[in-house]
């Protein structure tokens, strides 16, 4: 297969991270926010959780899929030593830096909000995702190298399988089996759980395979996207009405993958085109993911004490979080050379190197 630039994958990563920010802000307005380490508003907006519960089953899995796709692009022109070195720079260094320097910042704000003694507390926080991704790179790299050099027969078999509407649904079976085997009490509790680790591993592995398989898979999703979305919507409606948002894990696994297949199909058809906005946002997405919890907690600390309606607080914290992330990225992270690698950005290239590099592609994906 001739590998072409996949701008839709870049767009998916940008959109998924933007939705992640909104999802985390919505947690602030849930009664159980403190139980997961979030600042909590005294005025709940429980109605927000209806759309968030739909988002919740695919928001993290889709990022794992996209990260696996990113590894495929990263492997095209690198041997295994170069790849591990590059992934160490892009993932492991920001992960370790975030544990000691970023996550403690929003913990300070949490402590200040609740008038607790300020204590330095290095922890993974929301950056657990990066630790998982780096582990998956090390675990699956031998398999991916084998596929790259000796996988021609398997690729032909997968092309034939994924050329049918049922093909992608066979992938869903692996996620269904994971849910049956691990039995997560809460399906969407991915952070630092075995369920999250195994689900992420599956998504990362299949994300690589989906780009490896190529056109037969993506054309199937493009053709049947509305069918996958209809099935996902039906399962979500059933979960909402019959199970009060938390259905059995095997149903939520099927719902999750159907949402993702439908979204992949839509993106492949409508978003696979370059643009200056994408060029900027695709570079900003990773640093924004790293710093967004600090911006969110700072916004909550400043805005929640204000005597305004809770929905306006939600809107205000959302605007504050996105604006603060933009300011930190635009005026500090991308402009100060020493900060760039700490937030997963490459060092600035010379003008000649930039002209040769061209537009960023999905190979930039974490």
UniProtKB/TrEMBL annotation:
Keywords: Acyltransferase, Membrane, Transferase, Transmembrane, Transmembrane helix. Signal peptide: none annotated. InterPro entries: Acyl_transf_3_dom, Glucan_succinyl_AcylTrfase. The keyword Acyltransferase applies. It comes from the Bacteria. GO terms for molecular function: acyltransferase activity, transferring groups other than amino-acyl groups. The chain crosses the membrane at residues 12-35, 55-74, 95-114, 126-149, 161-182, 194-214, 226-244, 250-272, 284-304, 310-332. Residues 7-329 form the Acyltransferase domain. This is Acyltransferase family protein.
């Amino acid at each position: 297969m001739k590998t072409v630039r996949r701008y839709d994958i870049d767009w998916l990563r940008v959109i998924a991270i933007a939705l992640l920010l909104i999802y985390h802000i919505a947690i602030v307005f849930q009664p159980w926010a403190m139980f997961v380490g979030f600042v909590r508003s005294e005025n709940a907006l429980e109605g927000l959780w209806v759309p968030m519960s739909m988002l919740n089953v695919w928001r993290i899995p889709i990022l794992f899929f996209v990260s696996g796709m990113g590894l495929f692009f990263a492997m095209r022109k690198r041997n295994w030593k170069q790849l591990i070195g590059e992934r160490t720079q892009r993932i492991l260094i920001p992960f370790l830096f975030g544990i000691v320097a970023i996550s403690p910042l929003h913990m300070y704000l949490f402590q200040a909000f609740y008038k607790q003694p300020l204590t330095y507390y290095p922890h993974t926080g929301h950056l657990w995702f990066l630790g998982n991704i780096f582990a998956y790179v090390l675990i699956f790299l031998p398999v991916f190298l084998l596929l790259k050099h000796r996988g021609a027969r398997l690729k032909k078999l997968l092309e034939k399988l994924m050329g049918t509407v049922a093909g992608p649904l066979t992938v869903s079976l692996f996620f269904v089996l994971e849910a049956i085997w691990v039995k997560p009490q809460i399906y969407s509790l991915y952070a630092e759980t075995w369920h999250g680790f195994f689900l992420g591993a599956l998504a990362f592995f299949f994300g690589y395979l989906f780009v490896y398989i190529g056109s037969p898979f993506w054309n199937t999703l493009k053709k049947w996207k509305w069918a996958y979305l209809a099935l996902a919507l039906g399962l979500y409606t059933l979960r909402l009405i019959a199970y009060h948002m938390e259905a059995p894990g095997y149903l939520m696994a099927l719902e999750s993958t159907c949402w993702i297949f439908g979204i992949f199909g839509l993106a492949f058809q409508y978003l696979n085109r370059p643009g200056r906005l994408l060029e900027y946002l695709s570079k900003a997405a990773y640093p924004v993911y790293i710093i967004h919890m600090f911006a969110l907690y700072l916004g909550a600390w400043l805005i929640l004490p204000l005597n305004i309606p809770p929905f306006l607080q939600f809107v205000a914290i959302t605007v504050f979080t996105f604006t603060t992330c933009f300011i930190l990225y635009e005026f500090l992270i991308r402009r100060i050379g020493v900060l760039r690698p700490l937030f997963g950005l490459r060092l600035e290239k010379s003008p000649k190197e930039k002209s040769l590099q061209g537009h960023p592609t999905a190979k930039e994906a974490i």
